[in-house]
Write a structure and sequence with these properties.
The chain has 115 residues and is an all-beta fold. The protein has no helices and eleven strands. 0% of the residues lie in helices and 53% in strands. Strand 5 and strand 6 form a beta hairpin.
Length: 115
C-alpha cells in the first residue's frame, strides 16, 4: 500500500510561484496514472494535471503554460510546479496515484493566492 503526502502549499502573491510535492511511501513505478487535483469549498474537485507511465501529460486549459507536472521514480515523488499564480488558483490541491489494484489520494495541501 502506498501513502501519499503533499507539501509545498502556502500563501503566495499573484504572479508568484510554488512547487507542490507528493511523497509516496512505496514505489509508484507501476502506476499508470498520476495526477494533481484541486478543490474549493462547495465545488467539484477538478483534475488540473495528469501524467501517465509513458510520460504523457495533460493539463486543464486554465493552467496550460503555467503549471508543470513531473515525477521522480527514484525518489518516489511527484511534483506540480505552479508559476504565474492567479487568485483563481486558490484551492486545496491533492495528488492521486492509480494502479491496477489501487487508487491513492494524498491529504491535500492548501494553496492561497492573494495580495
Amino acid at each position: 500500500q502506498v501513502q501519499l503526502v503533499e507539501s509545498g502549499g502556502g500563501l503566495v502573491q499573484p504572479g508568484g510561484s510554488l512547487r507542490l510535492s507528493c511523497a509516496a511511501s512505496g514505489s509508484i513505478f507501476s502506476s499508470y496514472f498520476m495526477g494533481w487535483y484541486r478543490q474549493t469549498p462547495g465545488k467539484q474537485r477538478e483534475l488540473v494535471a495528469s501524467l501517465n507511465s509513458g510520460g504523457s501529460t495533460n493539463y486543464v486549459d486554465s493552467v496550460k503554460g503555467r503549471f508543470t507536472i513531473s515525477r521522480d521514480n527514484v525518489k518516489n515523488m511527484m511534483y506540480l510546479q505552479m508559476n504565474s499564480l492567479k487568485p483563481e488558483d486558490t484551492a486545496v490541491y491533492y495528488c492521486r496515484v492509480v494502479g491496477a489494484s489501487y487508487n491513492y489520494w494524498g491529504q491535500g495541501t492548501q494553496v492561497t493566492v492573494s495580495s
